[in-house]
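Onboarding guide, step 5: your first structure request.
Type a short instruction followed by the sequence, for example:

Predict the 3D structure of this protein.
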Amino acid sequence: MKVYFLIQGQFGNNLFQYFAAEIIKKMYNCESVHPTFHINLDNTVINDDKFKQIITAYEQGFIPSLDPSKDILMMGFFQRSEIFRLEKDYVKSLFTLENTNHISNRITICNILKYKSQHTHVPKDGDLTLHLRCGDFWRHETNESEIFHPDALKAIIRDIPHDKLYIVYNKAEQLWEKEYYDQFADLNPIWINGKIGDDFDFLMRSPQLITSASTMCYMAALLGSAHTIHIPYNYFHGGYEGSGQHLAEFDERCKVYYDVGTWLPSM
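The system replies with structure tokens like these:
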């Protein structure tokens, strides 16, 4: 029995899909894990709802049965922090230079780790890193947002002892994005922006990290070296009660903020 996962979304999404497939492989003693662009409904399909059912049962000490004669097709995003509370060490054991498995059609785990960052700044032990992402996190058509409110983020920052403040961000392409980033200018941060590999590496090296709603940033927190992780909670995709995204704490290093609120552009 093999596990296939349908490639959807961007880099952070692909990491979630890959690790979820590896966890299912471990649970059901499967042969291997492979990314795919093809949907084969003759396989046993695990979507987000089914994945939540499986890991809820796993938390309670048992594993639901699956047809051993069929391969498994994982077709979803699988962004549930409770599975990382159970399998964080296993996931981190897969994040090695020896792992040549693909998380997408072009990116392997070992190549993520081999990447040489172009950033000249390196965060030190007393420094704090905040990740900000705008772009597709504001839905223009419905005026809905996953962008955390700057006042709430700044209150979190004020409560965290730190030396330098770094802000890793996606470069502003629209005036409304610049409006958001301008809210943080009074903190005199060091702004960090590069290719996705550069920024992911910087986030993983950060000793104190405040995450955005970005899955890339959450994965950097999980896989990186931070000793303190501050997680503003994102309710947009359903939260714990739903079958979609629920990204809260995964170990004792994490502190979750459930009342951050979101921000909407004024223009």
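Each response can be followed by summary notes, for example: The helical segments are 11-27, 48-59, 81-94, 109-114, 150-158, 175-182, 196-205, 215-223.
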